[in-house]
Amino acid sequence: MNHGQQSGEAKHEDDAALTEFLASLMDYTPTIPDDLVEHYLAKSGFQCPDVRLIRLVAVATQKFVADVASDALQHCRARPAPVVKDKKQQKDKRLVLTMEDLSKALREVNNSSSLSSCF
Amino acid sequence: MKRRRKARVNSEAPDDQSAAEFSFSLTRVAVSQICLSVGYTSTDTSSTLNTLTLITTKFLQSIAELAASFSNSANRTEANLFDIVNGLQDTALSTSDCFPGGSTLHNTESHCLIKSAVLRNLSDFVASAFEIPFAKPLPRLETSGSHGGDSTRMARSPEMRSFPAWLPPFPDSSLYLEPYTKERSDHLWENSDSVIGRGTFVETSGVRSSGRLPLRRASVRFKMGRDCSNGGGSCKSDTRLERRRDDNDGEYGREFEAQKKIGEEYIYCADIDAGEWNM
């Protein structure tokens, strides 16, 4: 009986968390605009009038890009920096996204996920 | 020469290609914004950014295709949250970096989508990450585009809800509705086609009457069958009166002339009698 009550409470809490998350999507503005996401979704045969779900897809895509970019950034930082004698150049150390870092980051994603079927 | 040929090919590109280029360039702006938020300031070549942008679009479309296939397999045309989460789960299954976990989605005891690690990670991302809105507001195309996404965004009336959204929108109702349906109530019989006939002034000029007269219109003159001497009144009654008057005048004149004749004869006789002769 207690186990049933606990599971019911946990389910209620999960439902509340899900509702809160979906409500927070209404106020959240993803970097990828809704119209753009909607365009790609319609192109793939996806049909949904709910803006929250479109934003959910936008957030997932944004997170994917951010994770790949941060992974590439880790590779960029892990690479030994070239020796620079000039102090100005040392101060102006700008992070540049290179194809080498990007390919390393994508290779990790590609190896560990089913994304290889997409690309 | 080759460049000129290439330029011609690009100028003759169809609308689909330009729309794809436009959407791709918009995605590239969004991807560059995300990279900027991570810490990057630039890319070594433009192809690097294009590659990441292309992968982003492929990722988005793969989620959409998976969600659409899940909804179609459940005999639905519209996808719901379950389909999207399943699509996300399949896309990023066992990805250690993007979506860790996620094995509890099909757990029969949980019965809740938030148990999915994918959704939980996304919830944490929304709660923690800063909002980076798109650089510029997107212009909305008023004309119907070649793809169904924009063209199906028109507001549908409750009667049209039964039609799927991916179908092209209906044309304007004024193009196919009967033009006389609204005017039937105040349409007078004497103005109907059976009396006037088609091709009258109002119909040929393209203006429906509906009780309103055009500003410039032809002058109309009325002519009766015969002219009336008197200004007012009905012509027939006047003529009758005149006839009566004429008749009366004629008799009166004849009487007057007879009296006059009698009088003259009387005077003539009297003058003869008196010995005077006046001619």
Describe this structure in words.
- The complex is a heterodimer of chains A (119) and B (279).
- With 119 residues, chain A is mainly alpha-helical.
- Chain A has one domain: Histone, subunit A (Orthogonal Bundle).
- In chain A, 70% of the residues lie in helices and 2% in strands.
- Chain A has helices at 2-27, 34-43, 51-78, 87-91, 99-112; one strand at residues 96-97.
- In chain A, helix 3 packs across helix 5 (99-112).
- Chain A is elongated.
- Chain A starts with a helix and ends in a 7-residue tail after the last helix.
- Helix content of chain B is 49%, strand content 1%.
- Mean pLDDT of chain B is 67; it is low at 5-12, 143-153, 199-211, 231-247 and 269-279.
- Chain B has a domain at 23-136: Orthogonal Bundle (Histone, subunit A), CATH 1.10.20.
- At the A-B interface, helix 1, helix 2, helix 3, strand 1 and helix 5 of A face helix 2, strand 1, helix 3, helix 4 and helix 5 of B.
Write the layout of secondary structure elements.
The complex is a heterodimer of chains A (119) and B (279).
Chain A: H1 2-27, H2 34-43, H3 51-78, H4 87-91, E1 96-97, H5 99-112
Helix pairs in contact in A: 1-3, 2-3, 3-5
Chain B: H1 2-11, H2 15-38, E1 42-43, H3 46-73, H4 81-91, H5 117-128, H6 148-151, H7 173-176, H8 201-204, H9 235-274
Helix pairs in contact in B: 2-3, 3-4
Relevant terms:
heterodimer; A: 119 residues; mainly alpha; Histone, subunit A; disordered C terminus; B: 279 residues; 9 helices; 49% helix; elongated; TAF10 (chain A); Transcription initiation factor TFIID subunit 10 (chain A); nucleus (chain A); transcription (chain A)
Percent of residues in beta strands of chain B: under 5%
List the quaternary state of the chains: heterodimer
> Biggest interface and its residues per chain?
A-B, 65 and 81 residues
| Terminal residue distance of chain B | 128 Å
Helix content of chain A: 55-70%
Q: What is the CATH level 1 assignment of the domain at 23-136 in chain B?
A: Mainly Alpha
Sheet with most strands of chain B? none
Give the proportion of residues in helices of chain B. 40-55%
Class of secondary structure makeup of chain A = mainly alpha
CATH architecture of the domain at 23-136 in chain B: Orthogonal Bundle
